[in-house]
Specification:
By secondary structure, the chain is of the alpha/beta class. The chain is built from 24 helices and 26 strands. Strands 3-7-8-10-9 form a 5-stranded mixed barrel. α18 (544-559) runs parallel beside α20.
Length: 700
């Protein structure tokens, strides 16, 4: 502590306010006490004015805040204005005073620190009594008792008649302040290798209450305090930390933890000007997995994402890309998901069976955090992944009612919650990367792929890109794959041996040569910084040539559906997907314009995705309904014709339409026997036809 009297410190703060915050104090005086009750002070300003005073504020925040508020009260203002209860709130502490929540230790007690994280829970704002006025019910004398943060204190005896009560709290004479409790959890981008995120409770009072909601990324500044674990007789010698919040600011900055140096920037710009930047990027995604260049390119585009547009009428067009990998087991889908989760500057990973709808969106919980009386909202995985990527593995293993929770998050990018009397809307501006297996565990090459995807059409249609990953024997490809896997394992063996064993017969050069083959082209840490830098600084717009290429592709596809009985080839959702993808492609080059070759690159990806899943195998034409509605047009026509056929035949027979006659007639109109049987089975499952007796059918 600087050796100075109290008055000198008050004078020092007064001089500091005069030099740096004169306008802000005058504005506060005009709006006090209804609109504004605090003066927010930047610590860096205080440091520039007097480094010793700034350091003292970190070590003894309580005393110095009192002196600062005293200086505010003594500030020269018009006679009729008094800033009696105004607060001085410090923000923007130096890097040394912003530890991760997991790094907080006993030495930090009673000092001023700043933490970054996501608000996981927030209680309602409640009045808290600061000074209770007790009225003696026998003689009416008022006794005032200041209340600390512990238990509610009552007077021992009446100051008038000296009896020990009974007392009644006089609410009019007592002093109350708004209070709220927040729980802040570490941001996922700071965690590596399966660490469990840790949390810190923050108590905020007065005018900074009610400012944040679960899911917000915040910086909280305050004084660390201790709270004893256990209660009553079972008090423990172990204490918990909590923070008395001085200021809480919402971080608009997307990747506040990404520390991009000038050398990093130079390296990023140098990389972006390479002609083969896309190939380098693809080679940097999961290099241990062989092939899948197109899928990896799509994942790169998803990491960079398109530009989110805010329109003048207040509506918003999402820029985030959603992608689904459906494939045979053992094709490396989960490994690719895990790799993306590591590279994305902000990401949350969850797996099908282990996720419920509440865990994905938001849960209403009642626990000791809200004093056990009130319900509080707890943000789920899609909210925590806001401004990042949510990777959901085993999507097909989830219960369908849990999957339906994702619909709104994918398209509207928000989550509406109505639980336990809480109505709230949380933000979930994230990209979703999903992986799933086909309905029967593996693709059947004799069935249309669209029928083997066991996901609701409403969910599938929200994905911009859907890749099918089939595992078919192919001698040349299998040989390359085997070579790649063995090389990867061998490189791993050499690295482990070098670390664990002293004597080695293998030279360092040989080790380097082997590990080079499985090293990513661009280091993962640099790639994370590259993505963060591009998302912060690049907001490309389309050139006329790119707009024309996308428009022509879309119109050309749609024109295939102009015949009277043709299927609808694609919907407008695909057009938006093309725009988002081409913007992401421009961001990879750090370009401010989307060129024609960006459009052509993404048209190629979209065309191959449509070829895999959007083609009706019976007609060979694109049919949007396969994805959007779950049944192709030819299938719908077949079902309609079959129903008509059954109802025609049952008029001829009293007992109902015999199955063999239905099949014969279906064959006459060109319907395959096995397909007709399959559709009859489907109609029975839906309850549209039933069997009054064996081998006869009736329509409902």
């Amino acid at each position: 502590m600087a050796q100075a009297g109290n008055t000198e410190l008050v004078d020092a703060f007064e001089q500091f306010f005069r030099n740096y915050y004169d306008n802000e104090i005058k504005q506060l005086a005009q709006q006090y006490p209804n609109e504004q009750r605090s003066l927010h002070v930047d610590w860096q300003d205080l440091y520039r004015y007097d480094p010793d005073l700034a350091d003292d504020f970190l070590n003894q925040p309580e005393q110095l805040q009192r002196y600062a508020e005293e200086a505010l009260r003594l500030y020269d203002l018009p006679i009729d204005v008094s800033l009696g209860q105004a607060h001085v709130r410090i923000r923007n502490l130096p890097e040394t005073e912003t530890p991760e929540i997991r790094e907080i230790r006993a030495r930090d007690m009673n000092s001023l620190v700043q933490v970054h994280g996501i608000v996981r829970k927030a209680t309602d704002v409640r009045p808290k009594i600061e000074e209770a006025a007790f009225e003696c019910q026998l003689c009416g004398t008022l006794s005032r008792v200041p209340q600390s943060s512990g238990d509610f204190q009552e007077p021992h005896e009446c100051q008038g008649c000296e009896r020990q009560g009974p007392f009644r709290v006089n609410f009019d004479q007592s002093e109350f302040v708004d209070s709220q409790k927040l729980r802040i959890q570490e941001s996922p981008e700071g965690l590596r290798g399966g660490e469990t995120p840790q949390a810190l409770d923050i108590h905020v009072e007065d005018d900074i209450t009610g400012e944040v909601t679960p899911g917000d990324h915040v910086s909280a500044t305050g004084v660390l305090r201790l709270e004893q674990q256990g209660d009553g007789q079972d008090k423990s010698p172990v204490f918990d930390f909590y923070m008395e919040g001085m200021s809480v600011d919402i971080d608009e900055e997307q990747f506040e933890d990404m520390d991009i140096t000038e050398e990093d920037k130079a390296e990023i710009v140098r990389l972006s000007s390479n002609d083969d930047i896309y190939e380098k990027m693809v080679a940097s995604i999961a290099p241990s997995i062989y092939g899948y260049d197109q899928e990896k390119l799509a994942m790169i585009l998803q990491l960079f994402s398109g530009v989110t547009k805010e329109l003048p009428d207040g509506s918003r067009i999402r820029g985030d890309l959603h992608m689904l990998l459906i494939g045979d087991p053992g094709t490396g889908k989960s490994q690719m998901l895990g790799y993306i989760q590591n590279i994305a500057p902000r990401s949350v990973y969850t797996s099908g069976k282990g996720s419920s709808s509440a865990g994905l969106t938001a849960a209403a919980v009642r626990d000791d955090f809200g004093d056990g009386q009130q319900w509080t909202l707890e943000a789920g995985a899609l909210v925590l992944a806001d401004q990042g990527i949510a990777a959901v593995d085993e999507l097909d293993k989830m219960r369908s009612e849990d999957r339906s929770a994702m619909h709104e998050a994918l398209e509207q990018q928000k989550i509406s919650v109505s639980k336990a009397g809480i109505n709230a809307t949380l933000k979930s501006r994230c990209s979703l990367l999903g992986a799933a297996n086909p309905k029967y565990g593996r693709f059947d090459h004799y069935e249309p792929i669209s029928e083997q995807i066991d996901l609701e059409p409403a969910l599938i249609s929200r994905f911009d890109l859907i890749f099918t990953v089939t595992d078919q024997p192919d001698e040349e490809k299998d040989k390359n794959l085997a070579e790649h896997i063995i090389t990867t394992n061998y490189a791993g063996e050499l690295t482990t041996q070098r670390e664990q064993m002293n004597q080695m017969e293998v030279t360092q050069d040989e080790i380097d040569e082997m590990t080079d083959q499985v090293d990513p082209e661009i280091d993962a840490e640099l790639l994370r910084k590259y993505i963060a830098y591009a998302k912060q600084n690049c907001h490309p717009r389309m050139t006329e040539a790119a707009r024309e290429a996308i428009r022509d592709f879309y119109v050309d596809l749609r024109s295939q559906g102009t015949d009277e009985d043709a299927a609808v080839p694609v919907t407008a959702r695909k057009l938006e997907a093309l725009v988002r993808l081409s913007e992401a492609s421009a961001r990879v080059r750090l370009s401010d314009t989307v060129e024609e070759h960006d459009a052509e690159r993404v048209i190629e990806i979209v065309r191959s995705c449509l070829q895999d899943i959007g083609v009706d195998p019976e007609t060979g034409e694109f049919d949007a309904d396969i994805v959007e509605a779950g049944t192709s047009k030819s299938q719908r026509d077949r079902i309609k014709n079959l129903k008509q056929l059954i109802s025609d035949i049952e008029e001829e027979y009293d007992e109902g339409a015999p199955v063999d006659i239905v099949l014969d007639r279906a064959q006459e109109v060109g319907m395959d026997n096995s397909k007709a049987e399959h559709e009859i089975e489907k109609l029975k499952q839906k309850g549209e036809v039933y069997e009054p007796s064996t081998d006869t059918l009736r329509t409902t």
